[in-house]
Amino acid sequence: MSAENGTPPPGPSPEPIRFFGTTWLNHDNGYTPRRIAVAVGSLATAAAACVVLRLAYQGLQIAAIGGFVSLLMIVMFAICSAMAFRHTWDGFTRRPDPDRQASLRGLLAIGFVGSLLAYFFRSLTEAPGEKLHREEYEAARKQHEKSTTRRSGKKRRRA
């Protein structure tokens, strides 16, 4: 926004990223501390989630439901976490398909530890999704510049 009159600047504006807002654009206003906080927070949350899953597993052992069901639970969480990791990781580099996202909602909820770990690993190098947002923003800026120079560059001669 312009300080003089409160109007937005001409052209495209950057899309905010969760926990970062638009600080990813110029890496300013606490970008680095936010990245550190996101990395620590996602890793701590993943560790806490693993503790909760361990307690659930111990509950199954106490209930003595059998080794097969315990094995199924471990395999289910491992597969769902791996798939959630991959889906989340891919979502940082390209926009996910909304229909596929809706169909995978349950799987992603079960494999939430994988999503948290993907968030942790990505936040070690950049704000999660920064590369995708930067590419889209740069493309929108180039398109805007091309359209404005095309209009202003071709002035008609008046007779």
Could you characterize the architecture of this molecule?
The chain has 159 residues and is an all-alpha fold. 67% of the residues lie in helices and 0% in strands. The chain contains 6 helices and no strands. The longest helix has 33 residues, at 31-63. The mean pLDDT is 85.
What is the strand and helix layout of this fold?
Blueprint: H1 31-63, H2 67-91, H3 98-103, H4 105-110, H5 112-123, H6 130-153
Helix pairs in contact: 1-5, 2-5
Main sheet properties: none
Percent in helix: 55-70%
Instruction: Write down the overall mean pLDDT.
Output: 85
Low-confidence stretches: none
Q: State which percent range the strand residues make up.
A: under 5%
Radius of gyration: 23 Å
Task: Count all strands and give the number.
Answer: 0
Quick one: overall form? elongated
What is the tally of helical segments?
Answer: 6
Distance separating the two termini:
40 Å
Query: Could you give the order of the helices and strands?
Result: HHHHHH
Oligomer state equals single chain
Structural class: mainly alpha
Summarize the structure.
With 159 residues, the protein is an all-alpha fold.
Protein traits:
single chain; 159 residues; mainly alpha; 67% helix; elongated
